Amino acid sequence: MNLFLALVVAVLFGTGATLLLKPDLFRVVVGLVLIANAASLTVIASGLRRGQAPIQPLVEGEPVSDPLTQAMTLTALIIGFAVTALLLAMAYRVYTTHRSVDLDDLARSERRAEEELERGVPVEHDETEAAAENQVSR
Amino acid sequence: MSLLVAPLALLWPAAAVAALADGRRRATGWAAVAVLAAAVALLAALAVRVAADGPVEVVAGGWPADVGIRLRADALGVVMALVSVAVVLAALVHGVVSGLSPRLFPALMLFLSVGLNGLFLTGDVFSFYVFFELAMISGYALSALGGEGRMVGSALIFAVVNLLGSFLFLIATAALYRATGTLEMLAVADRARGIDPNTAVVIAVLYFVAFGVKLGLFPFHFWLPSVYGSALPAVTAVLAGALANIGAYGLLRFEAGLLPRELALGGGVLVGIGTVSIIYGAVQAIGRRDAREVLAYSAIGHAGYVLVALGVGGRVALAAAALFTVVNALGKALLFLAVDLRGPLVGAAFAVGAFSVAGVPPFAGFFGKAALFDAGIQAGSAAAVALLFVGGALTFVYLFQIYQHTYWRPGQGTQRASAGARAVVAAVAVVVLVVGLWPEPLLALSDQAGAALTRMAS
């Protein structure tokens, strides 16, 4: 069972790490979700032992399974859920301003803007960006 | 109610209320400032008590000591908590007086303080993780606040890289629980001596990577310049002056406190990485023109000093690492708050911050550098002393480059900042000066911290 769980964790973590290296932001977020689940599974696996359910009243003399790791995993899952929501919201914000979630595209448009700034040509903004800058300067 | 629980019990409900209130109103901002100021006062009282009577403990919910979750304030935790929350307070006041409009700004700052407060004052590895995520998630949201496009992009990278670090921390914690059967820090320190050396080394390396990412050490630093360069000034001050402390605290607590044998084993490697970090940060900082980027690379360089001190090891070096972290946090917060403002008062405050970070007496940073020198001399390492000297000199060079660029050039930065923001910066500068002139409490606390860490280890 331990070996099986270790394999699953390894596959989850490996897939997640591969996705993290992709330029597409949504793939990056999904990669992080997989890594979060690999971590939760590791926590579950760290308290793996056979026994009765840890609910009172307990049968005397029989081993009890570890309730602590279950509680920890539940907490870790909730944190992972919150983090996923936040990351997706941020990725969506990037999409609404740049019309792209590809990191290479973002880097290219940023470089273009910088070059134009150096040449003294006013940079073309879309409306949301201009509004944001107005807000900052105000 | 115990003094240890009071700041948390005050901040948590206040943060929840602030999240529902409209943060764009001045009143909400000032209410948050008042709550945070009260929390700083409580933490200062707690620090006085810890300095006088030693560690304070509370078991949450009145459970028996080995069942309930333990809150524990020792010298290291309380000094880190006090300085970090004070930096958040300064940044919050700065944000409120300069009319920062994002709706969630006060609430996020309060949640961040809850997280910082909890993680520095807990005695349990898993509740450390929970508070740490609370602080970090507030940090991710703050770094994306008020901006579009580029800012959100770098905030997203910041979040992804640091979350990877957090999940590595979680995996390491699971392994530590499996190996020692407990999450109570003192008990873990006790039992960690008996676990299989191979397991312990893997756990120590995982913790090192997790906290190295937070601290922005050399091989894990790549997220740092872009987010420090694009976030709002008040937020950057919090990232550099409060969140970066988590990395240093984690390294001290988990490596030096819980797994000292493995730390000693990797001492040489840590000194090596720290050295590379110092040199790389300083050289990159000298090569940059933009003031915020210079400060960001400077943060990478200064993370290296903490690592060198950890690698040298021993009571004096650990105390020096703790002291250096907190005085450097104060100096960095001051510089980041000052960097976008103009005027003679701000120029003077920036100079105070620059002198402090470069380690010139009588400013706070001098004692951090002096303690590191002392540690290097006691360890008999000429290389460490030379490194500190060279690093200090380089710091001086790049900080005065930006000082020249921003404050000596007429016509630059015509928009004058509000008087309030300049007053906040001046107040932080006064704090740095006062800590520099009266460093005894901080020195005593950091010495206690070093002693406690080595005692946990032996």
Topology:
The complex is a heterodimer of chains A (138) and B (458).
Chain A: H1 2-20, H2 25-46, H3 67-98, H4 103-119, H5 127-137
Helix pairs in contact in A: 1-2, 2-3
Chain B: H1 6-20, H2 26-53, E1 56-59, E2 70-73, H3 75-97, H4 105-120, H5 125-143, H6 150-180, H7 185-191, H8 197-215, H9 224-230, H10 233-258, H11 260-265, H12 267-286, H13 291-312, H14 315-338, H15 344-358, H16 364-378, H17 382-407, H18 419-437, H19 440-457
Antiparallel strand pairs in B: 1-2
Helix pairs in contact in B: 1-2, 1-4, 2-3, 2-4, 3-4, 3-10, 3-14, 3-18, 3-19, 4-5, 5-6, 5-10, 6-8, 6-9, 8-10, 9-13, 10-13, 10-14, 10-19, 12-13, 12-17, 13-14, 13-17, 14-15, 14-16, 14-18, 14-19, 15-16, 15-17, 15-18, 16-17, 16-18
Explain how this protein is built.
The complex is a heterodimer of chains A (138) and B (458). Chain A is built from five helices and no strands. Chain A has 138 residues and is an all-alpha fold. Chain A folds into two domains: 1-51 and 65-101, Helix Hairpins (Orthogonal Bundle); 103-138, no CATH class. The radius of gyration of chain A is 23 Å and the shape is elongated. Chain B has one domain. Chain B has helices spanning 6-20, 26-53, 75-97, 105-120, 125-143, 150-180, 185-191, 197-215, 224-230, 233-258, 260-265, 267-286, 291-312, 315-338, 344-358, 364-378, 382-407, 419-437, 440-457, and strands at residues 56-59, 70-73. A two-stranded antiparallel sheet of chain B has the order 1-2. Chain B is globular and about 65 Å long.
